[in-house]
Amino acid sequence: MAGAGNAIRGSRVGAGPMGEAERGDAAPRQAVTYFCANEHRSVIMFSIEAVAPESWDCPKCGLPGSLDSENPPPAPKNEPYKTHLAYVKERRSDKEAADILDEALALLRSRRKSGDLIF
User: Fold this and answer.
1) What secondary structure does DSSP assign to 63-93, as a single string?
2) Pairwise CA distance, residues 93 & 91, whole Å
3) pLDDT tens per residue, range 94-114
4) What is the DSSP string of 15-45?
5) Residue 68 φ then ψ, to 5°
6) Closest CA to 58 of 77, 79, 74
7) What's the pLDDT tens digit per position in 68-82?
8) The overall pTM is greater than 0.70
9) Burial letters for 36-48: b for 16+ Cβ neighbours within 10 Å, e otherwise?
10) Is 9 helix (H, G, I), strand (E, B) or coil?
């Protein structure tokens, strides 16, 4: 059985559209326009007291945008994914790697001969 309905269900006392009179005056703002390499134009609002940053990421494409419409910043270069082995090869030469491997194998063989097993 359905309960008795309440015409103002979900609302509260004093609910309704709030205007400037109830909220107070809005802080003074400045509009700053940024331009990205894809020719997007983004208008961002800042407080008058705030210093607008030199660059801002474009909300449409994510590229960095600048205040200069004639010279927007170029898209950043994406570095390809590197494996752990690629990073190791950057730090060690093939000779160094062979020396480390020989040292580790010699240590392992000496432990096997003495009966100390490592698990």
Assistant:
1) -EEES-SSSPPPPPPPPPP--HHHHHHHH--
2) 7
3) 899 899 999 999 999 988 887
4) -S---HHHH-PPPPEEEEEEEETT--EEEEE
5) -90, 115
6) 74
7) 989 999 888 888 889
8) no
9) bbeeeebeeeeee
10) coil
